[in-house]
Structure formats: structure tokens, C-alpha cells
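User: Can you predict the 3D structure of DUF2158 domain-containing protein? Sequence below.
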Amino acid sequence: MTAAIEEGAKVRMRSGGPVMMVTSVGRSGWGGDGPIHAYVTWFNEKNEVKTDSFPLTILEIVP
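Assistant: Sure. Here are the predicted C-alpha cells for DUF2158 domain-containing protein:
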């Protein structure tokens, strides 16, 4: 059984990259009819806060 990606989860892209914190999960697109995305926050190598959203299908939970 795979754990669901939800608010507060630590995730990273399946291809690698920084650990990110999920701030919310929702549908993207005009009118909210697009694929489900996780909105995430992380610190880059310069210790700057970054935010973005990614489809759930490319993310994995970090234990």
C-alpha cells in the first residue's frame, strides 16, 4: 500500500532532487479541472525559499 501525498508530507521528485514540504494538494488548470498537483516549498542551495507545484505522478514520499 502506498501512502497518499497530502499536506505536510515530505516529498521529492522520483528522478531525485531536494526534499520538499507539501503545503497543499489540489487540481490545477483553469477552473480547477486539471490534474491533481502538490504545491510544495523547499530551500535551494543558497538557502532561499522556493515554491512550485508538480503533478502527484512524478513525486514520491520521503520517509
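The mean pLDDT is 90. Residues 48 and 59 are 21 Å apart (CA to CA).
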